[in-house]
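Hi R.,

As promised, here are both runs. First protein below:
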Amino acid sequence: MLVIGAGAMGILFAGYTWLAGHRHLTVLTRRLAQARAINDSGLHLKLPGEKLLHLKPQAIAAEEDDKLESQPDLSLVTVKQTQLIPVLSWIRRNINADKPVVFIMNGLGHPDHIRKALPHHRVFYGVTQCGATRIGDTKAEVRGTGVTAVGSLAGGTVDSAPSFSRWREDIAPYLDVCWTNRIEQTMWKKAVINACINPLTALFQVPNGKLADFPALTQLMKQLYDELQPLIQAVWGKETPSILEEGRLWEEIIGVCHRTADNHSSTWQDIRHGRRTEIEALNGYFVKKAAQYHIDLPAHRFVRQAILALEEMNNDDER
C-alpha cells in the first residue's frame, strides 16, 4: 500500500493503516530530507489517549523521482491541492492505470485536474472528518476522528475496488471509512464548511472555537454561508436541500467549531508557517464558479483576496 504525502493527514492515514496490520507500507514524500528522516527513525503518530504509535514504513521522495519497488494494491493521496499537479505527474509515471488511487483532499476543482492527468486510471475521491496536526517531518498528532467517505465520480462501485474494500475492513476498528454514492455532494458540503471557517481563523489568528464564541465572528461566518446558498441553488437545483442538509448545514458548521474548538485550521497553519494555502480550492473556487452564473460573492471575494495578500506578505518577508 502507498500513502502519497507525509503531512499531518498522510501520517494519520499511514499510522492507522499500520495499526490495521499493513506492514508493506510505502510513503511518498515531496522532499528527500523528509524521506531520509522517515527511513532513519520511522513515523510517530500521537493517538487519542496519549498513546504514541511508532511505525516503520519505507519512504521514497518525489523530489528524486524515486521508483516503487512494486506496484501498490491501493494508493491514498493526502496532499494539499497546492501540491497536486506534480503529484499527478508522478502517479502517471509510476502507478499502473489498473491500480486504484483514492484522493482524500479538501476543496473543490481537483477532479478536473485529475481527469486530465489520469484519464485511464481507476480514481476515487474521499472526504474526511479526521483532524491532525503535523509536529515535524516524522511526527503528527491526531486532533479528532470522524467519518471518511469515499466514492466515485465516474459511476464506479465499491465492488470495483476490492483492495479498497479490504483496507476499509482492516482499518474499521480504528477509523470509520464508508463508501458513498454521493461523493460529489459530500465534497461540496465539506468545502462549504471549510470556506466558512478556515479563512476567518487565519485572518483573525484564532482557533476554530472562537468563531462560535464571538458574535461578530459568528456573523462574518454566517455571511459567508448565506452568500453560497444562491450558488448552490444554481449549480445543484433540486439537490440543494441535500447539500444544505435541509437547512441544518449551518448548525453543522457551528458544531464543527465547537467540536474542534482548540484546533487551528489548515489555512491558519499555512499562513503561520509561510506556506501557500488552499484558498483557491475553497473560497476562490466558489468565486470563480459563481461568476459563471453571474452571481456575486463579495464576502468570499474579500476573504480570498485577504488570504492571498497574507501569502504575498509572507513571500516578501522571505526575500
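And here is the second one, sequence first, then its C-alpha cells:
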Amino acid sequence: MSIFTSNANRTVSSLTLSIFILIAAPILQGAAFAKKTKSRIPDITITRAVKGELASDQAVSAHLIDVRTNDGIVELSGSIDNLLARDRAVKLAQAIRGVRAVVNRIEVYPVVRADSDIRVDIVTALAEDPATDSYEIRVDVEDGKAVLSGNVESWAEKQLCASVTKGILGVNELKNNIKVSFTPNRKDHEIKAEIERRLELDPHVTEGLLEVAVKDG
C-alpha cells in the first residue's frame, strides 16, 4: 500500500513541476524580451540621428538621401552625383549608436563629362591634397571609369587616393591598382598630412578638436 502511495506522490510532484515550467517559461521569456526591447534604441531615434549626421556633413547631399530604420537596421536610398558622398553616407550611418547594420541602396548618377576633363580634375586633386601630393599616381579614365596605378607607402595612402578620386564629378566607377611599398623612414610632414586627412575622413572623429604634431616619426 505504501509503494502505491509513494508512486502516486511522485506522479503528482512531476505533474506539478511540469505545470510550473509551462507557466514560468513564457513569463521568463517575456521578461527577457521586455528587458531587451527596453534597452534597444527606438528606430525613430536612430533615423533622426542618422539624418542629423548627414545634414551636418558637407560632403553629403542629405536632401537627396532617404533614411529608414527597421529593428536597428538602417536603409539608405536616393541618388547622388559622386561615389565619395555615397561611401561617406554609409560610414556616418554606421557610426550612430544603436545601428545594427546599414543597407546601402543609394544610386550614383554622376554628371556626364568628358574623360579628359575628369582625368585633369583627378590629377589636380591628388596634387593639391597634402596627403597625396608627393606620390606619382597614374590616372586613366574611360567612360567615366577611373583607374589608379602607381606606388604609395601605406595602405591608408592608397585609400586616401581612392577617396580623392571618388569625390571628382563624373567618376562613376573606380579601380584602385595602386601598390603599397612600405618605406621605414618617412618624412614627418608626410606622416602628419596623412594622419590629418584620415581624421578628417573618419566620421567617428571631430578632427577640428585635435592637433597633430610629428617629430622623428
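A quick note on the second one: Residues 125 and 164 are 7 Å apart (CA to CA). Let me know what you think.

Best,
J.
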